[in-house]
Amino acid sequence: MDNRQKTLHGPGIYYFRMTGARQQAIFRSVFEYDYAAHLLSHIDGSTLLAYVFFDHEIHCVLDCQRDWPGIIDDIRDRFTDQHERLWDAHKAVISEEISPVLVDEQACLADLIITLHQLPVSRNLVPDASMYSWSSDHHYRSLNPPGWIDCGRMLNQVCQTRHNRSLRYESLMNTTHATRMNLNESDHPEFLLFGRPALAEKQQARAEMNQPGRSANELRRLRDDALQLIAGRFGITLESLKDSSFRRQYQRLMPLVAWLLEKRQLSYETIADLLDEDEDTIPLWLRGIPADHPQSLLDKLSALWSPAEYSTESPAESSAERSSGTTSPDDEAEATADQEGEPTDDAVNPDADAEKPENKDVVNQ
């Protein structure tokens, strides 16, 4: 896929291609393949339609009833937990580099699933798709597929009746001239989409309907208020907070601004536009917040950022109140140490000085 193409958001059917973290294998034993199918089929707010597993890759099609970033986070967490239970080692299993492709159900869902099931054949792993154990192909050939995978969505498209649907599927798989999709090429010049280009505009409209209606001035007010809250709590200026040349400070504090905006149900695209960042950066920022900041600080910021408070205060009033309780980087370090039961001196926590606005030379290293 072209990295310049944007991902679409909102509920819908998506094709996911997931790879191993740090280019490592996802599966280390045959048992993990069976566990993976069970994990994917039990993600809240989604329905599994098809899957194909390889040692280093997972290809799957999910019907998402909620936006896909939350579903991806759940999948990554489940695989991490599974790895820890099986191998007694905590590490990320699924790479963060995932670009879901929206699927036009009527135009190409059947072709996509057939293409996925044929991947083991096209990679010369087996002579026939039915011989590959780690895909949903055998469920589509079954007269009674399990309830945790929705085979009927695709089979209803290729068969006019409910009878002999599996036979119809087998005949399609055995047809040499059956349509094969290019999984690396989007059908839309700007967005990641399989199907009719007009679907991209409809999906954007649906996603916007699920977002709270806010004018451009309200969005800017939200951004400015979030910036003032974070700058005030850490005792730095707005200019210092927004200055990306202070790399360590910027990468540590700006994710908190994005986190506050995300709590107001703003989409990643909207947050990226407000902060002048790439859209793919926002979920990476949000994912790293629990590791970079203690929960006590997040609870304080969340309390100050409550919707009721925002609706009744002006930006000036809320900024003044928030600035009255400044949280220094040392305070945050102390809170982190309290949670971990460690000393808080600078020798143990060298990052403490990294956030001090007066030490700009250190921050910018």
Task: Describe it.
With 365 residues, this protein is of the alpha+beta class. It has two domains: 12-208, Transposase IS200-like (Alpha-Beta Plaits); 216-363, no CATH class. Helix content is 50%, strand content 8%. The chain has helices at residues 30-40, 68-87, 105-117, 119-122, 137-141, 152-158, 165-173, 198-209, 216-234, 238-242, 247-263, 268-275, 281-292, 295-304, 307-312, 315-323, 329-340, 360-363; strands at residues 12-19, 46-53, 57-64, 101-103, 193-194. Strands 2-3-1-4-5 form a five-stranded mixed sheet, with helices on both faces. α9 (216-234) packs parallel to α16 (315-323). It is elongated. 33% of the residues are buried. Mean pLDDT is 82; it is low at 307-324 and 333-365.
List the helices and strands and how they pair.
Elements: E1 12-19, H1 30-40, E2 46-53, E3 57-64, H2 68-87, E4 101-103, H3 105-117, H4 119-122, H5 137-141, H6 152-158, H7 165-173, E5 193-194, H8 198-209, H9 216-234, H10 238-242, H11 247-263, H12 268-275, H13 281-292, H14 295-304, H15 307-312, H16 315-323, H17 329-340, H18 360-363
Parallel strand pairs: 4-5
Antiparallel strand pairs: 1-3, 1-4, 2-3
Helix pairs in contact: 1-2, 3-6, 9-11, 9-16, 11-13
Terminal CA distance: 35 Å
Q: What is the N-to-C order of secondary-structure elements (H for helix, E for strand)? A: EHEEHEHHHHHEHHHHHHHHHHH
Radius of gyration based on Cα positions: 24 Å
User: How many domains make up the coordinates?
Assistant: 2
Proper CATH architecture of the largest domain: 2-Layer Sandwich
β-sheet strand percentage = 5-15%
Question: What's the CATH class label of the largest domain?
Answer: Alpha Beta
**Fraction of residues in helix:** 40-55%
Number of helices: 18
Biggest sheet, spatial arrangement of strands: 2-3-1-4-5
